[in-house]
């Protein structure tokens, strides 16, 4: 763990310091930067530069491997004609700044067309039909990042962290047992509507940090879970299943796969749950997990 990460997590302040340093090093202007998302990474847009910037949590070896893989996957997908977002390879990357790794991407401005679940289903079907690339990809392991988040947990109740540790230990064993019964292939790893962008008449699938080889049912879970957790309409879900060609809720071990995914969603939120809306939502998720209440509404942040 870098000194920056050990003292301060990825906050608005620390991410912005890394952004401004990286922009200074590459000749980009950061004065009009706008934070789009703060989670596993901080994502900024620089509209005047036509660049989106991703600031990773650290510059450790494991993060560097993930960032390098993400850039390689983007280039490979584009070479296959897949609708992916382009890395800005005219800029040096990945770049180290303030104890974090920074990458630069094509900025896709807002579109009048909002991508929908049918777009996601079709892109996943296309992605899952691709062969594995000619470079090594890791096996899908959603728990490695959960354990890292729990090790670095701060500003949340100790009993919540302990509960999540125990739940992850149980779920990891169940995940491995269930996953062994599914056919494997290329997996996006974090396939939800928030990772779609519309450029002109084309929809792009973005964010390749979690791409791996594993049970492709994993990519169907976020949409299935959204019916119970985020009030997704059943008609919308049925349209997603129809266009993809499968309903993951009818498959073997769905509830155990779902638990793994929900633990990932909760530990992701935990990283920024020290106060405000994130803390309130984290409390809701913890209560529903403790009570095994699978219909309690969650809120996207």
TrEMBL record:
Domain spans labelled Aminoglycoside phosphotransferase: 53-254
Stated name of the protein: Phosphotransferase
Biological source species: Streptomyces endophytica
Matches recorded under PANTHER family: AMINOGLYCOSIDE PHOSPHOTRANSFERASE DOMAIN-CONTAINING PROTEIN-RELATED (PTHR21310:SF40), AMINOGLYCOSIDE PHOSPHOTRANSFERASE-RELATED-RELATED (PTHR21310)
A Pfam family this chain is assigned to: APH
Cited SUPFAM superfamilies: Protein kinase-like (PK-like) (SSF56112)
């Amino acid at each position: 763990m870098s000194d920056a990460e050990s003292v301060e997590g990825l906050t608005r302040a620390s991410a912005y310091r890394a952004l401004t340093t990286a922009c200074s090093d590459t000749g980009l202007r950061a004065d009009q930067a706008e934070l789009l998302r703060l989670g596993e990474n901080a994502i900024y847009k620089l509209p005047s530069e036509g660049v989106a910037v991703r600031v990773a949590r650290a510059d450790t070896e494991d993060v560097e491997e993930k960032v390098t893989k993400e850039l390689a996957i983007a280039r490979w997908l584009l070479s296959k004609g897949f609708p992916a977002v382009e890395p800005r390879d005219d800029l040096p990357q990945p770049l180290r700044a303030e104890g974090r790794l920074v990458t630069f991407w094509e900025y896709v401005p807002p579109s009048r067309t909002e991508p929908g679940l049918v777009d996601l289903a079709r892109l996943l079907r296309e992605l899952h039909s691709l062969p594995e690339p000619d470079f090594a990809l890791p096996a899908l392991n959603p728990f490695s990042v959960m354990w890292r988040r729990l090790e670095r947990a701060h500003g949340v109740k100790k009993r919540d962290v302990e509960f999540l540790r125990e739940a992850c230990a149980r779920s990891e064993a169940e995940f491995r047992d269930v996953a062994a019964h599914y056919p494997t292939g290329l997996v996006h790893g974090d396939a939800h509507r928030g990772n779609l962008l519309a450029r002109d008449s084309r929809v792009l699938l973005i964010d390749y940090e979690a791409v791996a080889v594993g049970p492709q049912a994993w990519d169907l879970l976020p949409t299935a879970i959204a019916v119970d957790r985020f009030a997704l309409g059943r008609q919308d879900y049925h349209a997603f299943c129809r266009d993809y060609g499968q309903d993951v809720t009818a498959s073997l071990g769905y509830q155990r796969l779902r638990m793994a995914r929900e633990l990932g969603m909760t530990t992701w939120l935990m990283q920024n749950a020290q106060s405000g809306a994130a803390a309130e939502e984290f409390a809701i998720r913890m209560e529903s997990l403790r009570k095994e209440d699978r219909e309690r509404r969650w809120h996207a942040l």
